[in-house]
């Protein structure tokens, strides 16, 4: 009965404008992900301009990820109750304003506030965009194509951000790494206002305030703890205390959600084995992609001596690989094969890309080193992301579309934050150990490069192992069979 009802209710919403609307939905997603990396390459330059200390510079990145990751579930529920189109447009306008404030910042504090506001408005924008996609495309083949495009843009936007950040920093000004979001947001807002159809959950808006406080506090503690581990170490009292507090708050959150009448995150949304596998796949894919960005960026600039622009260009083949894999391969196979038949191979290929780092030396050519690793990482991530986004929201009650969308966004954001902090700490420790074991009064430039490479390779090994372990879990957990929706609809048509 539920399938028939959903199909009947959603059929009238399909109109010829949905593919045009997809352009503006995807444009918003591109901006969100791009802003997570576009500032990275500009960080040394803006640090000098604003006089930011080495201890404080991490907050330019962390302020965005903290606000974004910790407020996503609340943003998803706001979208469900107050209207997904309305929340989408508010998120875009707010993001544009925060980006303009950041670009005009004259001191560290103003830039920090702007980055936190960007993250907060992204937490509104991300779930509303994905839930609009979910309720707009319901026919299986169209849905697969739409999610293929979405997943490809999501996975490729990080590399595009590095390219844009390098070009803007080198040829224009670092402030344009923030200003660039303003025209993107305004174009998406104008197009979305004209083409999108409003949808919302029926009934009076009631927000689970205890759930909001618990999940927000838990995610902030975990993300902040992993960020502090880069400087304090994983064994420090502060880091252990933050991670333990975060875990306890999330356990309390799960308990509260099982008791309240209108929970922030209904447990039925995450109880599905397939949905859980989708969340895990999205989180681990981001560990691999952001690990690849981190190590390859530092390797190309610190070891090979590439400029910011040349480094960004070096990531273009990875971007192309993501788009081909997501839009060409995954989109075609998504309606025809079980989800784990794409996610598991994708994770293994992504793991292979990280493992390829072990073959790279300080004098390895680009074609034999970074190019191969990047292509493998891109192909793997492109197989994972469309499936993860599709099945994270597939079959969910339309009333819960926003919060289900927020769940996969949260998995992605927390995965990238925790993974980056973890892998960076491992790399830094391995580099320090290598220098200590080859101690001289004045380490040569070659020794410094070799030590840096040792750190990258050690962390890449850990990343590969984590992703392979995740692939084994997904292979068991994600037990949904080959999609049969199209066949079911044809049979229903014949009976009619």
Automatic annotation (TrEMBL):
Keywords: Antibiotic resistance, Cell membrane, Membrane, Transmembrane, Transmembrane helix, Transport. The chain crosses the membrane at residues 21-46, 58-76, 88-106, 112-135, 147-166, 178-197, 209-227, 233-256, 277-300, 312-334, 341-360, 366-389, 459-478. It is found in: Cell membrane. Pfam families: MFS_1. InterPro entries: EmrB-like, MFS, MFS_dom, MFS_trans_sf. Its main location: membrane. This is MFS transporter.
């Amino acid at each position: 009965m539920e399938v028939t009802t959903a199909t009947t209710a959603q059929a009238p919403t399909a109109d010829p404008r949905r593919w045009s609307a997809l352009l503006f939905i995807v444009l918003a997603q591109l901006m969100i992900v791009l802003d997570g990396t576009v500032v990275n390459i500009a960080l040394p330059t803006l640090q000098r301009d604003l006089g930011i200390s080495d201890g404080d510079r991490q907050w330019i990145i962390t302020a965005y990820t903290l606000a974004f990751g910790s407020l996503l579930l609340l943003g998803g529920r706001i979208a469900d109750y107050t209207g997904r189109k309305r929340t989408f447009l508010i998120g875009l306008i707010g993001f544009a304003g925060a980006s303009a404030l950041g670009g005009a910042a004259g001191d560290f504090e103003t830039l920090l506030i702007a980055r936190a506001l960007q993250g907060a408005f992204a937490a509104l924008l991300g779930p509303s965009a994905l839930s609009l996609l979910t309720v707009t495309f319901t026919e299986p083949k169209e849905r697969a194509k739409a999610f293929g495009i979405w997943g490809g843009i999501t996975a490729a936007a990080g590399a595009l951000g590095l390219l844009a950040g390098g070009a803007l920093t080198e040829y224009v000004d670092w402030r344009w790494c923030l200003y660039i979001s303003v025209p993107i947001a305004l174009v998406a807002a104008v197009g979305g206002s004209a083409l999108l159809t409003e949808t919302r959950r029926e009934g009076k808006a009631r927000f689970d305030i205890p759930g909001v406080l618990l999940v927000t506090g838990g995610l902030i503690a975990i993300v902040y703890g992993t960020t502090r581990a880069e400087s304090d170490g994983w064994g420090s009292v502060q880091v252990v205390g933050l991670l333990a507090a975060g875990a306890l708050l999330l356990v309390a959150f799960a308990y509260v959600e099982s008791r309240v009448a209108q929970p922030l995150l209904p447990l039925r949304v995450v109880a599905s084995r397939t949905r859980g596998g989708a969340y895990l796949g999205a989180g681990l894919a981001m560990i691999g992609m952001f690990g690849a960005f981190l190590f390859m960026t530092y390797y190309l600039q610190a070891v090979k001596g590439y400029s910011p622009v040349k480094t960004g260009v070096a990531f273009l083949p990875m971007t192309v690989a993501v788009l081909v894999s997501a839009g060409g391969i995954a989109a075609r196979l998504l309606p025809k094969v079980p989800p784990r038949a794409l996610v598991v191979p994708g994770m293994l290929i992504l793991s292979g890309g990280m493992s390829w780092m072990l073959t790279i030396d300080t004098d390895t050519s680009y074609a034999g080193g970074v190019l191969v690793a990047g292509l493998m990482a891109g192909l793997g991530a492109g197989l994972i992301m469309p499936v993860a986004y599709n099945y994270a929201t597939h079959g969910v009650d339309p009333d819960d579309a926003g919060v289900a969308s927020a769940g996969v966004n949260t998995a992605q954001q927390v995965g990238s934050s925790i993974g980056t902090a973890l892998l960076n700490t491992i790399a830094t420790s391995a580099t320090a150990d290598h220098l200590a074991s080859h101690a001289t009064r004045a380490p040569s430039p070659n020794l410094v490069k070799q030590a840096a490479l040792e750190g990258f390779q050690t962390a890449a090994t850990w990343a590969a192992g984590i992703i392979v372990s995740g692939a084994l879990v997904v292979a068991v957990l994600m037990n949904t069979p080959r999609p049969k929706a199209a066949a079911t609809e044809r049979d229903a048509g014949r009976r009619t």
